[in-house]
């Protein structure tokens, strides 16, 4: 296959796809119905033309018959007065009219048959046009309903996709919220334990010292209890009552002895 043929085929295929997208079946049906109406009108005009021609032939026949009757009457009158020559002339002319009338009657019969044929065709075409119109409206209604349903489904599909994205966003927000809550709780615990200092508030030195002393007391009491369990030494009651602060033992007083020879 040559390059030009391939390009032509590609162009035609793309053009057909573009036309399919642009084509609206309802418009196509309406156009087809309009064309059938135009054809039906042509057939009806044809029936009217044939009927007019038939009527004209009928008028011509009537006129010729009237002329023939008048010539026959003239021939009788001519014989009455003894003018055989005039009677013969009148009858000769009447004979010519009879020939014309016969031809016109044949033409009239043909026109009448054509008129009947066109009338039947017009009636059949009218029935087909009416049936096509009913079918057209049914197809249009079905197509419109299908189109509306398709748009609704597409809208629901878009909403479903959007809701899926919203669900993911909500999940991410919940995860971040839980993470921030856990972090805030951890910071609160660290601040409460003293591992972190709260620089946002005013520093209370007295309370900090009291907290430190309380922690030291707890440690001293725990050590005394452990020593008592190990039998190293009894837990002194004074240590427990005094809050674990070790008491100063009195230092033995030493006497100053003077060495011989030292001054007073």
TrEMBL record:
Disordered, as annotated region: 225-264
Alphabetized UniProt keyword annotations: Coiled coil
Coiled coil: 47-128
Signal peptide residue numbers: none
Pfam families reported in the protein's UniProt record: PspA_IM30
Regions of compositional bias (Low complexity) in chain numbering: 245-264
The family this protein is said to belong to: Belongs to the PspA/Vipp/IM30 family.
Protein name: Phage shock protein A
Organism: Sinosporangium siamense
Lineage of source species: Bacteria, Bacillati, Actinomycetota, Actinomycetes, Streptosporangiales
